[in-house]
Design goal:
The chain is an all-alpha fold. It has 4 helices and no strands.
């Protein structure tokens, strides 16, 4: 899976995972065991344990997505310009081009 520019999950994938956490929270309220929840939701026991601790501390609200980890530092226009400039190659930016690669790059 290729991540969006800012890294992490897409908004759609975050919503999907949030729904899984909410379902786990409803099952916590019914007293279901961690192993059963993990198996049914196809997640690790460790994740369910972490969600259960959050749920105990703050209820279903504690299982809500907090959104992307951070906003992208570049706008879409800036990112497009960066890609364009990188495609021009090192010699266009004053670097000595030995083999068509940027100095210090792995190839």
């Amino acid at each position: 899976m290729r991540y969006v520019q800012g890294g992490g999950l897409t908004a759609e994938r975050r919503r999907f995972r949030e729904r899984i956490r909410y379902e786990a929270g409803e099952r916590f309220a019914r007293g279901e065991k961690t192993g059963v929840i993990a198996k049914d939701l196809r997640v690790s026991d460790r994740s369910v344990e972490r969600w259960r601790r959050a749920w105990c501390d703050g209820g279903l609200d504690a299982l809500a997505s907090t959104g992307p980890p951070k906003l992208p530092k570049l706008s879409d226009d800036q990112f497009a310009e960066l890609e364009k400039q990188l495609a021009l190659g090192p010699s266009e930016h004053g670097w000595e081009e030995r083999d068509g690669h940027w100095p210090g790059s792995e190839h």
